[in-house]
Amino acid sequence: MLASLAAAASRASAQDRRPNILLAIADDWGWPHAGAYGCSWVRTPAFDRVAREGVLFANCFTSNPKCSPCRASILTGRNSWQLEEATNHFGVFPAKWAVFPDLFEKAGYHVGHTGKGWGPGDYEAGGFKRNPAGPNYDKHTAPPKFRYMSNKDYARNFDHFLESRGDRPFCFWFGTHEPHRAYEDGAGERSDKRYEDVDIPKFYPDNETIRRDLADYAVESEWFDTHLGRILEKLERIGELDNTLVLVTSDHGMPFPRVKGQIYEYGFHLPLAMRWGGMQGGRKIDDFINVRDFAPTFLELAGIDIPDSMTGKSFADVLRSGDSDLVDKTRNRMLIGKERHDLGRPNDWGYPVRALRTPEFLYVRNYEPDRWPAGNPETGYRNCDDSPTKAQLLRGFDEYYRMSFGKRPAEELYKIPEDSDCVENLADDPAHAETKKRMRAELERRLKDDGDPRALGRGWVFDTYKYTGGRRHAFDAWLANHAP
User: Fold this and answer.
1) What residues contact residue 207 under an 8 Å CB cut-off, 6+ apart?
2) For the segment 15-61, what is each residue's pLDDT rounded down to a tens digit?
3) What angle do CA 175, 22, 253 make, to 5 degrees?
4) CA dist., res. 338 & res. 66, Å (int)
5) Which domain holds residue 374?
6) Are residues 78 and 118 in the same domain?
């Protein structure tokens, strides 16, 4: 009884103060690769702590599973196709929409970021004077655990950020470069990973090459969690943990074929846990959350006006409710899509897709099924990071190759509770014809309501937007990381 009264008093105290905001975002860390989701081969004690003492979300999604489009959506609170040039990867980020770090700074918060903020792309051409994630704090470095990991000491840089805080509340973007590729081969083995413990999705063959690659990915994911743990310990030492809204997530799925940049469950479904002294902890939430909902939630909890430009919906009511499972019954639909990511097709065309996810089904509309979804074969399938897994799949033109690199039909339909790997396309099954028809109509209606140019007959505009990366940037980066 006394413990529950103390917890209630703590929540009331936290709600009376302006909360600090800590956004912790990994680069290419996929759902469900955390202990809190039942994963045993990726060890995430810090994320698990946030989930245990706060709220674990079962259904968080990005509307565009690629780095810069997702991060632009987080910053602006807008859906991907509402961002003009910033819809595309390696695009220009227009400063015409408010970004939440600027709004917090104007409200008197101490603002900053370390590691990866918004990118890749050109924010200066869009009118920003600095990275949209806020002032940079990357002064401190330290030797990384393995080759190809960043030498940025993210946690020490957070300490440095706090040194200039004064008595102001803070808003900090903690973004690692991990587990983005490249990886040191064998890092998993040298970290005592057992290959037999690794879960293999159904769209890959089960062999040692892929298990070894996934184990290396696990080590890089754990590097993010290690720095998160140090940051949480710092907040606890200075008495600020309960007054800090901690949100831990990623920008999209793991950097593997048929995942990163692709409109399947593993690509757009994200890990998400949140902790704050102003809410009841120990809960699991099934509500559908989009990354564009983060910014309005931060602003509402801080008592800052939410600008009209933000089309996301705050879920502060869900956090404060104290309830579990499905809290807001209207949060049971999600729109996903993409345009141009990386180059690798004639005329620099993209691969336009839109999708609708419900609790039971994923409906996917591929607008240009004659194009190669991961880029043309002669250009090396550039919208897929080079890796041992990619090389393995390209050795034989079998079903595994087709699922990752082959052309796709105009429509796809997957029953998620039974097929979260999305390998059994039900779009041509007569038993699901009515479901497909209904979801197609709902997708079209929702996209039009969202002002999506693709649904309004102006999809061509996305291919006119400037590409700001190197013409062969992905291949050049791979060569640089693997040079003898």
Assistant:
1) 392
2) 568 999 999 999 999 999 999 999 999 999 999 999 999 999 999 99
3) 40
4) 9
5) 334-482
6) yes
For residues 356 and 439, is the Cβ–Cβ distance under 8 A? Answer: yes
The DSSP code sequence of 180-224 is PSP--TTHHHHTT--GGGS---TTS---HHHHHHHHHHHHHHHHH
- The 10s digit of each residue's pLDDT in 314-370 is 999 999 999 999 999 999 999 999 999 999 999 999 999 999 999 999 999 999 999
Q: Looking at residue 281, which CATH number applies to its domain? A: 3.40.720.10
377 and 413 part of one domain: yes
Please list the residues that pair with 355 across neighbouring strands. 336, 364
**Tens of pLDDT, residues 189-211:** 999 999 999 999 999 999 999 99
* Domain-located, residue 41: yes
Q: Mention every residue, 6+ apart, whose C-beta is less than 8 A from residue 330.
A: none
Domain count, the chain: 2
pTM > 0.90: yes or no: yes
What distance in Å separates the CA atoms of residue 292 and residue 76, rounded to the nearest whole number? Answer: 7
Residues 441, 475: one domain? yes
Residue pair 270/65 in contact by the 8 Å Cβ criterion:
no
